[in-house]
Structures are given as C-alpha cells and as structure tokens.
Amino acid sequence: MSTALKEASDDAALLRAAGLRVTRPRLGVLAALREHPHADAADVLTAVREGQPTVSHQAVYDSLHTLTEARLVRSLQPAGSTARYELDAHDNHHHLVCRGCGALVDVPCHTGSAPCLSAPEDHGFAIDEAEVYYWGRCPACAAEDTTLPHSTL
C-alpha cells in the first residue's frame, strides 16, 4: 500500500473514531495539514484543491471548524496573525513566531506535561493547558535586520 493510501486509510479511521463522517474535504484537509503544518485557511484550500479541484471554500472552512471542534486539528492564532492550523498531536508543544516574516515553528514544552505553567490564581478553573508563543526573529530575518542585536534563541 502506498504511503498516501495508508495515510488516507489512517485518516478515515481517525475521523470515524472521533464520531465524524468520512468526507473527501475532511480527508483533504488532514492531508494538507500533514504536508503544510501551520497553514492558514487559504493555504489549506489551495493544497486541498490540488487533489480536489472543485472543492468549495465553504467545505474546507467547515472541515477546519469541525476537525478543530473534534480536537483532530489545532487552531493557532498568534497576536496580529490570521488563524493557522496544524494536526493536533496532543503532545503539549509550543511555538516560536518570527516578528519579521511570521514563520511559525514547533518547540517542545520545557516541562513536557500539561499544563506546563501554573497560574498564580486559578479562580476555580480546572486548568489543563497553557498556550505559549515565543516571539523573536528567525535566522533569515535576524540576518536582514541590522538594527537589532543578534541573539541566539
């Protein structure tokens, strides 16, 4: 079985396990996010249309919403950025965001377990996650920006 067919079969099983119908747009979104992590909705649509040229905007947006609600996909929205999406690996990782080009990359959680931070006051909430964004400049943007001191993140 080819890798693409195996992944599609795995994705179908993943959808069924989450109680979702298996649809071509949902399979396309999962495949697109596997190939393009941290893609925004427009990039996901473009990627899905490579294999499904007639898929509608609405089908992709609905799929992103449904998959996010089912916790199969994670929606990320760093301040000042459009929402981006990744497959939800449930691995408690965080993200680095470049202030220059907007690149977004995964970084492991320092503690490894969720939540990795403790709130000084929980107000009665049962806290189960902390979302962390580290901000800085990627190597390419840092090299281009001669006004900022270079640092090693």
From TrEMBL:
Family to which this protein belongs: Belongs to the Fur family.
InterPro entries in the cross-refs: FUR, Fur_C, WH-like_DNA-bd_sf, WH_DNA-bd_sf
Compartments it resides in: Cytoplasm
Biological classification of the source: Bacteria, Bacillati, Actinomycetota, Actinomycetes, Micrococcales
UniProt xrefs under Pfam families: FUR
The UniProt record lists the keyword rRNA processing: no
Main location: cytoplasm
Keyword Metal-binding: yes
Stored CDD domains: Fur_like (cd07153)
SUPFAM superfamilies hit by this protein: Winged helix' DNA-binding domain
Domain of life: Bacteria
Identification of the protein by name: Transcriptional repressor
Signal peptide: none
Keywords from the UniProt entry: Cytoplasm, DNA-binding, Iron, Metal-binding, Repressor, Transcription, Transcription regulation, Zinc
